[in-house]
Specification:
Blueprint lengths: L3 E4 L2 E4 L4 E7 L7 E8 L6 E6 L6 E3 L7 E6 L4 E6 L8 E9 L12 E2 L3 E6 L1
Parallel strand pairs: 2-11
Antiparallel strand pairs: 1-3, 3-8, 4-5, 4-9, 5-6, 7-8, 9-10, 9-11
Length: 124
Amino acid sequence: QVQLVESGGGLVQAGDSLSLSCAASGRTFSSYAMSWFRQAPGKEREFVAAISTGGYGTNYAGAVKGRFTISRDNAKNMIYLRMNNLKPEDTAVYYCAARQGYGLWISRDNYDYWGQGTHVTVSS
């Protein structure tokens, strides 16, 4: 089992950058595929980015590709989301998620563990 805690959210202006972090508990973190999802007010939770167990494979939603970068540090049990050129439509609660095994799943139903989320607000 793994517990996830996100941090790094805040209020920024359009065009700014922001980095999110997700700290994971457990000694087998490197065996978990990880991802970021987000949920805007009144909308369903949507996939943002995924990273494979070793960090060599990544996948991004079309809306963030080229602007966001997901990474992980297995030695520190951490994943990150670097967000550049933020837009007001990026405003949401951002969640990290985990599941065991290799893969780049994009459906929220594929993930077993979730953090509590961190708020990101982008003003125009």
